[in-house]
Every structure is written in C-alpha cells, then in structure tokens.
Amino acid sequence: MTFFDVPWEVGKEATEAIGTSRNEVLEALWDWYLRTPGAELPERPPADLLEGLFSKWQAREDGIRELALTLACPTCKATSGPCLAGKAKKPKDDLIHRPRLAAATALYDAQQAGIHH
Ligand SMILES: [Zn+2]
C-alpha cells in the first residue's frame, strides 16, 4: 500500500460524520507531533463507521475496475480485458491505464447517480 492508495474519500466522510474535517484532524495531529502545548490527539471515528465506509469504498473501487475492463483503452488500444504492456503488447494482469480508469470512474459515478436519484 502506498501513500496514494490511502482512500482520502473515506477520511472525508468519516471526519464529516463526527463533525470535523480532514484538515482539522491533520492540523491536530501536527500540533500533537510538534508537542505544541495543549495539543491533543484528535478523536477517531467509531470502528463500525469506518468498516462501513471502507467496504463502500472497496465496492466502488471494484466496480470501477470491472467497468474499466469493458471499455476501450485510449492508451494501449485494448478493447476489453486488461491493458496491454511491453513491446509485444501483451495483456498484463491488473494493468489499467490511467485514462481508461478515469473514463470508467466518470461512467461508474454517473451510473450510480442515475440509480440513486
Ligand atoms: Zn491501456
């Protein structure tokens, strides 16, 4: 897991649910880290709230990847399945080029909005 895999959206919803924000939490952590007088660790969201948010996030990630595999990729020209890599243009497991993933994300969110409104 890299820094960029950290689901910031989960953090956004979690902090809002307990009446704060990501910025406020980060500032509180930083003050605590720097031993600013009076600084305290911020309150954490309840575990069951986080569990729900993470499974929702995971379902969205899975849905986006699944949808991406059905779209044509503007980068490698794959028409379905994993993206193509290397000189031989072979399908590479789990590879989805960024523009294809972005298109799938937009389509997925539009579909979800259509379902829920
Ligand atoms: Zn591709």
Protein model, in words:
The relative contact order is 0.10. The longest helix is centred in the middle third of the chain and has 22 residues, at 47-68. The mean pLDDT is 91. A two-stranded antiparallel sheet has the order 1-2. The chain contains 4 helices and 2 strands. Helix 1 packs antiparallel against helix 3. A hairpin with a 4-residue loop joins strand 1 and strand 2. The protein folds into 2 domains: 1-45, no CATH class; 47-117, no CATH class. It is mainly alpha-helical. It binds zinc ion (ZN). Zinc ion binds next to loops. Zinc ion is lined by residues 73, 75-76, 78, 83, 97, 100.
Helix residue percentage: 40-55%
Distance between the termini: 34 Å
Number of domains: 2
Bound molecules: zinc ion
Mean pLDDT, to the nearest integer, reads 91
Going across the biggest sheet, name each strand in turn: 1-2
Radius of gyration, whole Å: 19 Å
**Tally of separate helices:** 4
Tertiary shape: elongated
Structure classification? mainly alpha
Low-confidence stretches: none
Outline of the structure:
By secondary structure, the chain is mainly α. It contains 4 helices and 2 strands, in the order αααββα.
List the helices and strands and how they pair.
Layout: H1 8-17, H2 22-33, H3 47-68, E1 84-85, E2 90-91, H4 98-116
Antiparallel strand pairs: 1-2
Helix pairs in contact: 1-3, 3-4
This protein binds zinc ion.
The site of zinc ion has 7 residues, from loops.
